[in-house]
């Protein structure tokens, strides 16, 4: 058995143990392939550990004279609460003010995915996205706001359905300049209207 096969077997046996622990029979027909399915799902859900956000951003940097705010709004994401391994579901708004360089627009949602596809807390996720963009693109400022629902609050514990948590991370001009900060919050809170 190869190292990979051995690791897969260990993971799948752990899933069987978990199923048994909660009162299920891992040998019943409907669950026979579940351990392998769970392993494959986890490999995808936690794929962010295998990616470097700086490398993603560096692959699409372009020289620009633009020095006005660039905003990518309503980026859907799914993550996992590191305390209970339950889903976090939400939207991210990311803005930055270029300082000689812009990044390809698709790279911003990709960076969100890199950090979201790890065991997380929302506050840290917000900071990680802002810091990756600030450190790699070196803009005049970065603003990140996340609005999310946490299944660890909805499915268990206090069971508060539809409660939303908002977190923000502001860097550079977004933190220092009230006008920039106000413009950012105004833009992310404005109705989107018709999609093109």
Automatic annotation (TrEMBL):
Domain of life, per the record?
Bacteria
| Recorded GO MF terms | GTP binding; GTP cyclohydrolase I activity; zinc ion binding
Reported EC number(s) for this entry are: 3.5.4.16
Concerning InterPro entries, the annotation shows: GTP-CH-I_C/QueF (IPR043133), GTP-CH-I_N (IPR043134), GTP_CycHdrlase_I (IPR001474), GTP_CycHdrlase_I_CS (IPR018234), GTP_CycHdrlase_I_dom (IPR020602)
Residues bound to Zn(2+) are: 81, 84, 152
Q: What class of enzyme is it?
A: hydrolase
Any idea where the GTP cyclohydrolase I domain is? 12-188
- To which pathway does this protein belong? Cofactor biosynthesis; 7,8-dihydroneopterin triphosphate biosynthesis; 7,8-dihydroneopterin triphosphate from GTP: step 1/1
Assembly and binders: Homopolymer.
Which family does the record claim for this protein?
A: Belongs to the GTP cyclohydrolase I family.
The protein's name: GTP cyclohydrolase 1
Q: Give the gene that encodes this protein.
A: folE
